[in-house]
Amino acid sequence: MIVRIMGEGQLDVADGHFAELNALDDELLAELESGDEEGFRRTLASLLDAVRRLGAPLPDEVLEPSELILPGQDASLDEVKEMLSDDGLIPG
Question: Residue 18 in contact with residue 90, Cβ under 8 Å?
Fold first, then answer.
């Protein structure tokens, strides 16, 4: 699956890693709903770090349709809330 981190680029993440990413996404969603800014910052950083660690960066000259778009590290709580679906940032 092609994942874009806003402001950084695209990574190809194998489907087998989505259980780990979904666990972080569930934690992030709970922190957003409770307004836990500190927890939100920590979990967003962990989620983005996991995508970077598990994914293979695509070259800048390659532009594939992104199946998933994640906010950048500096996104605010409100900006991330606007990006959410009922499942969080990561469907499933």
Answer: yes
